[in-house]
Amino acid sequence: MMLQLGGKRVGIVGLGSIGSAVAKRLEAFGCTILYHSRSRKPSISYKFFSDVTNLAAESDVLVITCALTTETHHIINKEVMLALGKDGIIINVGRGALVDEEELVKCLMEEEIGGAGLDVFENEPGVPQELFHMDNVVLSHHKAVFTPESFQGVLEVVMGNLEAFFSNRPLLSPISE
């Protein structure tokens, strides 16, 4: 059975530039946006969760867009998956190691979550073989970025960062440690 996107509660883990762009698009479908980020964003009206497990418990879908750091490694663990519930869907377009892939496979096989959409994998280029045979999993393997517009956007950011660096100005997209 197909699912309707409209009206879903979508939890976004990482409300940076990518997460914000995802939220904007999902709002157009009538989704309720919830989020977890390093800190609350005062200018954002979406409901903030300081704890990812609580975010998952309130969400129908979790979209993972945050950076991979020592703090975010396996931020989506079994506890988060169980909180998301049997009908919940995980979509990871961030980094593979943000999701505990071994636990994800188990939760999918045991029907503890409803499905997954994965553009990235924990041990690339390897992908767990079990995922290939699941009807409730979509694997795109970095295809989410392969558009002429996205390459143009990357080029613009790289060029802007280079110009800023060599002019001793703040970078457009600094990476915090």
From TrEMBL:
<dbReference type="GO" id="GO:0030267">
    <property type="term" value="F:glyoxylate reductase (NADPH) activity"/>
</dbReference>
<dbReference type="InterPro" id="IPR029752">
    <property type="entry name" value="D-isomer_DH_CS1"/>
</dbReference>
<dbReference type="Pfam" id="PF02826">
    <property type="entry name" value="2-Hacid_dh_C"/>
</dbReference>
<dbReference type="InterPro" id="IPR006140">
    <property type="entry name" value="D-isomer_DH_NAD-bd"/>
</dbReference>
<dbReference type="InterPro" id="IPR036291">
    <property type="entry name" value="NAD(P)-bd_dom_sf"/>
</dbReference>
<dbReference type="GO" id="GO:0016618">
    <property type="term" value="F:hydroxypyruvate reductase [NAD(P)H] activity"/>
</dbReference>
<dbReference type="GO" id="GO:0005829">
    <property type="term" value="C:cytosol"/>
</dbReference>
<feature type="domain" description="D-isomer specific 2-hydroxyacid dehydrogenase NAD-binding">
    <location>
        <begin position="3"/>
        <end position="144"/>
    </location>
</feature>
<keyword id="KW-0560">Oxidoreductase</keyword>
<dbReference type="InterPro" id="IPR050223">
    <property type="entry name" value="D-isomer_2-hydroxyacid_DH"/>
</dbReference>
<protein>
    <submittedName>
        <fullName>Glyoxylate/hydroxypyruvate reductase HPR3</fullName>
    </submittedName>
</protein>
<dbReference type="GO" id="GO:0051287">
    <property type="term" value="F:NAD binding"/>
</dbReference>
<keyword id="KW-0520">NAD</keyword>
<keyword id="KW-0521">NADP</keyword>
